[in-house]
Amino acid sequence: MSNDLDFEGWTCPLPLRETPTIVMGHGGGGAMSGELIESLFLPAFGGAARAELGDSAVLTVPAGRLAFSTDSFVVKPMFFPGGSIGDLAVNGTVNDLAMSGATPLYLSTAFILAEGTPMSDIGRVAMAVGKAAEVAGVQLVTGDTKVVDSGSGDGVYLNTAGIGVIADGVEIGPDRARVGDAVLVSGDIGVHGIAVMSCREGLEFGTTIESDSAPLHGLVAEMLATGIDVRVLRDPTRGGVSATLNEIAKASGVGIELVERDLPIPPEVRDACGLLGLDPLQVANEGKLLAIVPPDRADEMLETMRQHPYGAGAQRIGVCVETHPRMVVARTGLGGTRVIDLPIGEQLPRIC
Amino acid sequence: MKYLDEFSDPDLARRLVDQIHEVTTQPWAMMEVCGGQTHSIIRHGIDQLLPDGVEMIHGPGCPVCVTPLETIDKALAIAQQPGVIFCSFGDMLRVPGSSKDLFSIKSAGGDVRVVYSPLDALKLAKDNPDRQVVFFGIGFETTAPANAMTVYQAKQQGIANFSLLVSHVLVPPAIAAIMESPRCRVQAFLAAGHVCSVMGTAEYPALAEKYGVPIVVTGFEPLDILEGIRRTVIQLESGRHELENAYPRAVTAEGNLPAMEMLRDVFEVTDRTWRGIGMIPGSGWTLSERYADFDAERRFSVTDIHTEESKLCRSGEVLQGLIKPHECAAFGKECTPRNPLGATMVSSEGACAAYFTYRRLDLVSTS
Fold it and tell me: Taking CB atoms and an 8 Å limit, are A339 and B358 in contact across chains?
């Protein structure tokens, strides 16, 4: 999405044009910091920004329960097929809020910029932030910028925190999965991780895959509107489906059994994973959710999800079971079984 | 690419499994040599589908697993030197040396990079003429041609700041060593398909004859492995012991001739210590004298590092097929993929890691 943005086409007042890259002074809190905000961030954020520029944002929130979440983004490279660190940072926090059933309202953005980063890169990221916020219908209400010396950072690091409200009667939690419940996924898995890896330095491989980064609160709202008791919602980001299901199994004290042949893994992801020695279940997603729902309403829920653009590829992939509590197990295509474990740390490409 | 799907077809797999059941009349123990095969067997649950008594013994063919501790310690010593860019395949980063691993060198400020090809490391050397770039060249005959090509190109192009830390190992001497072991239970081998795609099959008929074992060159996808097992059982049941090629789409008898020529130029055979097994004569490659200038061990003066293996770890017996991973007292206790004592627990192709990752359920329910 952000790849289409043309930062060059956007007119920037003189002070910024004189410094084509970030310098330490942009984080000093003085005139240069002010110029960066006034001349770059606010225009790039566009309609999503609420520019009061006080020390804190003063917000009006409806009565009820608040959801509050924060996430930091350090993705490398910061531009990748289908997105950038900018939309990722907005969608990531929007989705974290949505997974507790909240309607996201407000976001903060905190940029940590490395000295020497091209101003045009910052502009592209900031515009992606603004556009993603606008699409998600959230306001950017407060922010911060720091600059670190060129050896200490890497382009743009971005933290977002968000606030949303949860409607009465919505009870979603990782400990609510019950034996017999169906495990659903909203679409193809492993897409974001493979898109990012395909353009990482030293690992460039040709793929048509684009990141699935997307805000999921609209889909969640449709799901909640069915009145079906959505027990658990999670977005399987880092660590992928494997890590998320393991966390759910542990929190709820149930076993989870997946059926490998039902997993929606696009051929490109399967091939890239085969080539690199990675498990698609451990690859990150940024626009997918896992839902655990009562078995008798699972088909109805799938129908609802498939009506939404971000749930069009929704599938039932498994079931919560009594045996092997707190463990995730997959039935293999050949009829064997294997344990689906938490990834230990970073996925390590295999030697051969 | 439909290769992966076509060679995992459940219906065809079921047919092969049925045929294996039909021909099997007694227990047999066969070893799959390559770690990639071990991984595939455990990941797809292939061993669960075999007749009772047909046992897969997991062989020493995981390059990460058999790279000796001493070589890891040498890698660590080189990687922490200032000015060095140390490049490695990803799964070597977590292999523990005596006191730390490459990850900890990286977190302490060392420049350790994961590359997918040694040629990427050579490019780094070209782009960073003021740095020393070292590639960790480990593996079997499979990874050796790319490493040989890289050193060859470094010499041709005069890229003097590149060097290779070499610990290559060879399959046929390992098969001989396993068969010479007094406790050997192996009655047949599934030979490593990709090793043979480079080297051909000429080295194997003599081994099959000398030790009276069938050797079936086998691929890596589920159907490849089942076909390898099927052919092996048929040979065993009929009392034959021959070389067979069950992976003809990748392996020819003569092998990859240009690759072999490159290997002969760049490497020479040497005695090699295998982690957990010990020294096997003539079982490795090192840089030939013509390319000795590119030998990282000499360049960084780490030839004097000598290291003992962990006493607790029984990976040597696992690698020789003498015990199954979970029969080691440290399995899943002192030794897990997070805190591996031996390399078989580190690499995803290591037998211990494969058992820990995919088989804990059975091990829990039977204990």
Answer: yes
Domain that holds residue B188: 3-62+171-245
What chain A residue is nearest to B146 in terms of C-alpha separation? A352
Q: Where are the beta strands (DSSP E) in chain A?
A: 65-73, 79-80, 83-84, 102-114, 139-148, 156-166, 182-185, 232-234, 255-259, 290-293, 315-321, 328-331, 337-340
Q: At residue A1, does pLDDT exceed 90?
A: no
Tell me the pTM.
0.82
CATH number where B106 lies: 3.40.50.11740
Are B49 and B86 found together in one domain?
no
Residue B79 resides in a domain? yes
- Using omega within 30 degrees of 0 as the cis cutoff, is the peptide bond preceding A77 cis? yes
Q: B158 and B70, same structural domain? A: yes
CA distance A43 to chain B (A): 39
The predicted model gives B134-144 an average pLDDT of: 95
The pLDDT assigned to B366 comes to: 43
> Within a domain: residue B276?
no
Looking at residue A139, what is its pLDDT? 96
Q: What mean pLDDT is predicted for residues B305-313?
A: 79
pLDDT band at A284 (very low <50, low <70, confident <90, very high): very high
User: What is the three-state SS of B73-123?
Assistant: HHHHHHHCCCCEEEEECHHHCCCCCCCCCHHHHHHCCCEEEECCCHHHHHH
For B160-218, the pLDDT digits (tens) are 999 999 999 999 999 999 999 888 889 999 999 999 999 999 999 999 999 999 999 99
In this structure, the dihedral spanned by the alpha carbons of residues B230, B231, B233 and B234, taken in order and rounded to 10 degrees, is 120
> Does B255 reside within a domain?
no
* Chain A residue with Cα closest to B65: A351
Distance from CA of B9 to the nearest CA of A (A): 8
Q: In what order do the strands lie in the sheet with A65-73?
A: A65-73, A156-166, A102-114, A139-148
In the beta sheet, which residues pair with residue A293? Answer: A182
A2-166 belongs to CATH 3.30.1330.10: yes
CA distance A277 to chain B (A): 9
Same domain, B10 and B85: no
Whether residues B222 and A277 touch (CB distance < 8 A) is answered with no
B180 shares a domain with B133: no
pLDDT in tens, B82-100: 999 999 988 788 788 888 8
Instruction: State how many domains chain B has.
Output: 3
Give CA–CA dist A304/A257, Å, rounded.
24
- Chain A contact set for B4 (CB, 8 A): 270-271, 274
| B261 vs B255: CA distance, rounded Å | 11
> Pick from A202, A274, A334: which is nearest to B10 by CB?
A334
Of A203, A271, A344, nearest to B338 by CB-CB distance is A344
Q: Do B43 and A202 touch (CB under 8 A)?
A: no
Q: Is the Cβ pair B91, A351 closer than 8 Å?
A: yes
Is the same domain home to B99 and B151?
yes
Higher pLDDT, A51 or A178: A178
User: Could you tell me if B191 and B239 lie in one domain?
Assistant: yes
Is residue B151 assigned to a domain?
yes
What confidence category does residue B2 fall into, taking pLDDT thresholds of 50, 70 and 90?
A: low
Q: Determine the distance in angstroms separating the CA of B210 from the nearest CA of chain A, rounded to an integer.
A: 30
Residue B45 has its nearest CB partner, among A336, A348, A350, at A336
What pLDDT digit, counting tens, does each position of A77-92 carry? Answer: 899 889 999 999 999 9
Do B164 and B183 lie in a common domain? no
Q: How much is the average pLDDT of A145-162? A: 92
For domain A182-340, give the CATH superfamily.
PurM-like C-terminal domain (3.90.650.10)
